[in-house]
């Protein structure tokens, strides 16, 4: 039985807003920018890619749009995709930027306007846009772009991830540092805050670092240094912020919370199935383990409080390769069952649509996953939040824009 088309999925799930469904499918299939679309990109006005911690499906690092905005204000973080992989086409026609599918115009879209601090430099001469990227209403900071799971002792990086390969490409082709100086970060935050009303939150994420006297001490120590530097820009200790870190111990999280202004935490488990977690995320399995990762997520709720702890799943990798679930129905049941255990403990799970990137181990030969699967998964995650009274405002469509289920949270 063939997968349902976009229109068929939209008709089958009328509670799923059509624009959110399009966003989901743009993530699933990727986009291809025509020359006319790229010629309409104004580097002096629009935000271009190049500073993201992950690479693209076509493996190219060129001046292309960072993202798109839909009519409902939803943002779409795009990854340029080769034509042979059947992406959506973004073209500029009749004075409008349009998404097309097989020649049919579907929706008008818009490029992001870049913030004022892009193009400026810190006191040490570092380009600020390479220190902090921007989401619609959130400052996106990646203090450390190397993941130590990829080192000889690390156990192995996640198979869907291209963080290290992307770092090597960025260091070779653009002005990019592996590890940022907290002072450069603090200066860039200060400059960004000069644009009133533009940003409502700060976000930090990095590659995992298990080093230290006890595992992950190095990661936590560095995050504390960075957050303290950022905190000098605020008159109060706690400021709207989210950190995406490894699943560290409860005492390490307590230090992070007590010593800095961070207000929410996400620790991405990536795969909600123990067998597949061990295969796809061997470094995480070695240094933490599946059940311990889940336990630490629930432990974090005691520290950060309700509606301040989340985890992301790279939705679709559970169907990848010869080791994945044999059917989408089996995968859905397994993932939602595991997500409910976390929701009962106060942890919200979010969907990250798997985008098979050229520099990752799972970048080639992936199984085509249906749009209906992602729609059902997003609806399932949102239903769990309703059932357990969870909110996702710290990682919603305004602040992140990468999760179709958090787009659903504003209307369902």
Features:
single chain, 412 residues, alpha/beta, 7-stranded mixed beta sheet, 14 strands, 15% strand, globular
Describe the structure.
The protein is α/β, with parallel strands linked by helices. Helices cover 34% and strands 15% of the residues. It has a domain at 30-111. The strands form 3 sheets. A 7-stranded mixed beta sheet has the order 8-9-10-11-12-13-14. Strands 1-4-5-6 form a 4-stranded mixed beta sheet. The protein has a 3-stranded antiparallel beta sheet with strand order 3-2-7, covered by helices on one side. The radius of gyration is 20 Å and the shape is globular.
What count of helical segments does DSSP give?
Answer: 13
Largest sheet: 7 strands, mixed
Number-wise, the strands total 14
Q: Structural class of the helices, strands and pairings? A: alpha/beta
Strand-residue proportion? 5-15%
Radius of gyration: 20 Å
The main sheet orders its strands as 8-9-10-11-12-13-14
What is the percent of helical residues? 25-40%
Mean pLDDT: 91
What's the helix-strand series? HHEHEEEEEEEEHHEHEHEHHHEHEHH
> First CA to last CA: what distance?
30 Å
Q: What is the subunit arrangement here?
A: single chain
Q: Would you kindly provide a brief summary of this structure?
A:
With 412 residues, the chain is an alpha/beta fold. The chain has 13 helices and 14 strands. It has a domain at 30-111.
